């Protein structure tokens, strides 16, 4: 009896929609054929279960979107960990550059040399960090800034560099470097030293280390500074006969010997003799090329500067007309290093009260054509308050204490050279005073306002009289 052939898979066809069941292997089809029609339903269930397991395994192998996000964040965090292991130290480079240049003054001799050395050290530091700072915007800004500054200051790329290593920067004849080395050895940050300023000019007007402004008589010889490192004495003489107004015609400066940096050097200037050398004929102190102390002549016979690197001190001396002016910048710790017996110092404590002309910094300017206190009658025909004000306004636009000093001196002496003296004194402040916000001192209801207040009072009384009698 012959068996009828059946189509493979016909008896076990089922309605399972799973692609896995539809593509069941031939072995399962043959087993279904052997067992007959009654076994088709269980086999379909088995195929469906197999399909579900396969789909579940496939989903397990595919990471969910949230996992992908976390994985990406993990990579970023891992990258940050790598950067923490080799950090970009551009901030340290910048901090070192600021420490090396914060004490420098562009108006002082040798600024360009020291600034270029610091720039080259800054550039070398950025180069050492070029790989780890490749994607740092601050780093790239610093590189561009260094290039611009080197171009502006005409700094060569090759040359000596500054160093923050105390063993390298320690120089006993360089005050700023010496202080930096002390700070670093002490384990602290390198903080710039604090500087004082003192100035004397005109009739004479004194600006003390504490920025107190005074106008004094102080006829004869008076000490401005007398500490363990420097002594400065001025001699003042009457400007016009029968007047208490005086001005400086002689300045003596003694730079005291200090270790191996310099022997004692004496400088002396008198009217019409402003030398560019010390009294011994030398122009510098110290051995070789160190120049821990030296004189620079800016204008022959009219303007000299003295730079004492070993004590961080700068002195400007000028002659304007027949009289001398003086400006000094000195570190606070050295300026205050003196004995009790040396307390008579005009730069430190100001003028004695018996020698003061001003009233707490306010100058006694005239009212309605009167001459100021101490003025000579010879000055009456030279300047009025209006003409003196206009003359001083030609050089000084701001009506600060230097402007009113100029007006006072013109009315007191009638000498137009005092205008240039006041203007030069203000220029010296801008060059040497460490704090820009204190360059200008403005009278507070003082000299400028006294005349206006009295004028308003006089006009008020006049109006009152008119009302009463009319």
Structure, described:
This protein is an alpha+beta fold and 470 residues long. It contains 15 helices and twelve strands. Strands 3-2-1-12-11-10-9-8 form an eight-stranded antiparallel sheet. It has a four-stranded antiparallel sheet with strand order 4-5-6-7. A hairpin with a 5-residue loop joins β2 and β3 (213-215). α6 packs antiparallel against α7 (137-152). The longest helix is centred in the last third of the chain and has 23 residues, at 447-469.
- Portion of residues in beta strands equals 15-25%
Instruction: Output the helix-strand order.
Output: HHHHHHHHHEEEEEEEEEEEEHHHHHH
CA(first)-CA(last) distance: 159 Å
User: How many strand units?
Assistant: 12
Oligomer: single chain
Give Rg in angstroms: 43 Å
Strand-pairing-aware structural class? alpha+beta
For the biggest sheet, the summary is: 8 strands, antiparallel
Counting DSSP H or I runs of 4 or more residues, the number of helices is 15
Could you give the topology of this structure?
Blueprint: H1 19-22, H2 26-35, H3 40-61, H4 65-85, H5 90-101, H6 111-128, H7 137-152, H8 166-169, H9 175-185, E1 195-201, E2 205-207, E3 213-215, E4 220-226, E5 230-238, E6 246-255, E7 265-270, E8 284-285, E9 293-299, E10 303-308, E11 313-320, E12 323-331, H10 332-335, H11 346-349, H12 385-393, H13 401-413, H14 417-432, H15 447-469
Antiparallel strand pairs: 1-2, 1-12, 2-3, 4-5, 5-6, 6-7, 8-9, 9-10, 10-11, 11-12
Helix pairs in contact: 5-6, 6-7, 12-13, 13-14
């Amino acid at each position: 009896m012959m068996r009828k052939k059946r189509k493979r898979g016909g008896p076990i066809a089922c309605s399972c929609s799973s692609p896995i069941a539809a593509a069941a292997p031939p072995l399962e089809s043959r087993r279904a054929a052997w067992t007959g029609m009654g076994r088709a339903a269980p086999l379909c269930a088995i195929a469906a279960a197999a399909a579900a397991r396969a789909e579940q395994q496939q989903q397990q192998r595919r990471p969910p979107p949230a996992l992908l996000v976390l994985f990406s964040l993990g990579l970023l965090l891992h990258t940050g960990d790598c950067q923490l292991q080799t950090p970009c130290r551009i901030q340290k480079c910048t901090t070192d550059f600021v420490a090396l240049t914060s004490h420098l003054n562009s108006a002082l001799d040798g600024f360009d040399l020291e600034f270029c050395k610091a720039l080259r050290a800054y550039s070398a530091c950025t180069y050492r960090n070029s790989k780890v700072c490749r994607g740092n915007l601050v780093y790239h800004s610093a590189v561009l800034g260094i290039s611009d500054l080197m171009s502006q200051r005409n700094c060569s790329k090759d040359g000596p560099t500054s160093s923050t290593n105390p063993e390298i920067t320690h120089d006993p004849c360089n005050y700023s470097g010496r202080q930096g080395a002390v700070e670093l050895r002490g384990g602290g940050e390198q903080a710039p030293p604090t500087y004082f300023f003192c100035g004397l000019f005109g009739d004479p007007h004194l600006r003390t280390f504490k920025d107190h402004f005074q106008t004094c008589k102080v006829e004869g010889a008076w000490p401005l500074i007398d500490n363990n490192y420097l002594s400065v004495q001025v001699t003042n003489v009457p400007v016009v006969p029968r007047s208490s107004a005086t001005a400086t015609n002689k300045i003596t400066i003694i730079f005291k010997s200090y270790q191996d940096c310099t022997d004692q050097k004496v400088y002396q200037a008198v009217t019409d003799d402003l030398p560019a050398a010390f009294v011994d004929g030398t122009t510098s102190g110290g051995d070789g090329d160190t120049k821990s102390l030296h004189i620079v002549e800016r204008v022959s016979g009219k303007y000299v500067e003295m730079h004492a690197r070993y004590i961080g001190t700068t002195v400007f001396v000028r002659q304007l007309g027949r009289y001398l002016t003086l400006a000094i910048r000195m570190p606070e710790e050295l300026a205050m290093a003196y004995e009790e017996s040396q307390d008579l110092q005009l730069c430190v404590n100001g003028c004695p009260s018996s020698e003061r002309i001003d009233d707490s910094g306010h100058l006694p300017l005239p009212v309605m054509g009167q001459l100021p206190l101490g003025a000579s009658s010879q000055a009456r025909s030279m300047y009025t308050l209006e003409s003196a004000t206009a003359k001083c306004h030609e050089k000084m636009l701001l009506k600060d204490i230097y402007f009113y000093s100029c007006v006072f001196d013109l009315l007191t002496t009638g000498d137009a050279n005092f205008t240039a003296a006041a203007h030069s004194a203000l220029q010296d402040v801008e060059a040497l005073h460490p704090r820009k916000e204190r360059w200008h001192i403005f009278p507070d209801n003082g000299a400028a306002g006294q005349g206006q207040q009295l004028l308003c009072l006089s006009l008020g009384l006049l109006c009152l009289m008119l009302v009463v009698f009319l």
